[in-house]
Design brief:
7 strands; two-stranded antiparallel ribbon
Length: 169
């Protein structure tokens, strides 16, 4: 994170703990980051992959289109955008590959039209949101131009297919 000048971590895990990696438990992580002069903010209650609103679920699976309408989620997106005016923020979740995480499938998808986003990979390299979406298109074989769908429509299809692949429905 230091090589990318990250000065704030926003934890978007609904459950900010790890059974396997205790260093990633909320309190320990916050303490460790503070020693590195990196701010820690927990927002998993506002924009995590589990919400309390029963209307946001269909057959037990979270429906992102419903989450996006939620006032708490909208407030969280505004708070993130405000935070970006002062800090270089990294969103933290539990998945290694952004394509398998609500951070990419929900949060970054909402912010991508307003902010240049990059995903910090496990090897320290950055992947742009555009490159991640290209990878998503290729994964679902939607990367070739179509007479019937423009690029934005193909991206939306790929997001929908990935949501089903990762979370079911």
């Amino acid at each position: 994170m230091q090589q990318h000048y990250i000065d704030a971590v926003v934890d978007v895990r609904s459950m900010p703990y790890s059974r396997v990696w205790s260093d990633f438990n909320r309190d320990i992580l916050a303490h460790t980051l503070k020693k590195q002069s990196i701010h820690y903010v927990f927002m998993g209650d506002l924009c995590g992959a589990r919400v309390e609103d029963a209307a946001a679920y269909a057959d037990g699976v979270l429906v992102y289109e419903e989450v996006i309408k939620n006032k708490l989620f909208q407030q969280a997106m505004r708070r993130l955008k405000e935070g970006l005016k002062r800090y270089r923020i990294a969103l933290m979740c539990a998945e290694k590959d952004p394509l398998c995480c609500h951070r990419f499938l929900l949060i970054c998808r909402c912010l991508a039209h307003e902010i240049d986003l990059y995903h910090l990979q496990h090897d320290g390299l950055l992947e742009s949101q555009v490159d991640a979406e290209s990878r998503l298109l290729a994964l679902h074989q939607l990367h070739h131009p179509s007479l019937f769908c423009n690029l934005e429509e193909r991206i939306q299809q790929a997001y929908a297919q990935q949501h089903v692949k990762v979370f079911g429905l």
